[in-house]
């Protein structure tokens, strides 16, 4: 069948029940043996002496406590914090969304390490009372964990 042809292993056809390759028909494997992947590294590491927020899924550093502006924000899936700046996040394309506080141009942000969507970045606010949010970041509490000296 056509599907069987797509699933067929090119050199030996064994995966889909085809004939086995006679011994010596394939060239010997060359190259170094496969090594284990190195541990993940993040673009930025925040100082251990500071209280920080990290990704709950992979523990990549996200923000210092000193960058926290407000704890009284609402994300798509619950409470969220507003930060002045963040690290180790990627930014998607901007789009207009009608949020609780009006129309904004926002871009989803995601963890650079594990690709989990964390929240969004405010690109533009269309109401003058909301302009302070421009260039700031929302991270939902369900996607971050507090680390270093919160006792």
From TrEMBL:
<dbReference type="InterPro" id="IPR034751">
    <property type="entry name" value="Yippee"/>
</dbReference>
<dbReference type="InterPro" id="IPR039058">
    <property type="entry name" value="Yippee_fam"/>
</dbReference>
<comment type="similarity">
    <text>Belongs to the yippee family.</text>
</comment>
<keyword id="KW-0862">Zinc</keyword>
<keyword id="KW-0479">Metal-binding</keyword>
<dbReference type="Pfam" id="PF03226">
    <property type="entry name" value="Yippee-Mis18"/>
</dbReference>
<protein>
    <recommendedName>
        <fullName>Protein yippee-like</fullName>
    </recommendedName>
</protein>
<dbReference type="InterPro" id="IPR004910">
    <property type="entry name" value="Yippee/Mis18/Cereblon"/>
</dbReference>
<feature type="domain" description="Yippee">
    <location>
        <begin position="51"/>
        <end position="148"/>
    </location>
</feature>
<dbReference type="GO" id="GO:0046872">
    <property type="term" value="F:metal ion binding"/>
</dbReference>
<feature type="region of interest" description="Disordered">
    <location>
        <begin position="23"/>
        <end position="42"/>
    </location>
</feature>
